[in-house]
Amino acid sequence: VQLQACGGGLVQPGGSLRLSCAASGSNLENYAVGWFRQAPGKEREGVSSISKGSGSTYYSDSVKGRFTISRDNAENTVYLQMNSLKSEDTAIYYCAADRLFQIDSRRWHWKDGYDYWGQGTLVTVSS
Fold this sequence. Notes:
- This protein is an all-beta fold.
- Strand 4 and strand 5 form a beta hairpin.
- Strands 2, 4, 5, 6, 9, 10 and 11 form a 7-stranded mixed β-sheet that branches.
- It has no helices and 11 strands.
């Protein structure tokens, strides 16, 4: 599967963005999909993930209540709706997917569990 992340940009604090992770070459509904981000000088961290099948969702504490992950199987795309954005959300956002990785509340943010990665999209939150 090939992943294409897009939707990043410059937004003011308190604003919203929706990121898209579009897949080609395979049916994304058969994959666990995660969003990760990497800010300058920091390690890549898990933001949110959605499982295949049941569609269980997981969020980091820093984004819970502000971000929502969802799937559109008809579009073969996973979205990350980001509301109430803060300056600390500034980062490059990556989507990742894996067909075999069984995510749960303990493992969803394990980077090594995802074999396929998109190229990243930059989100800048600034006034």
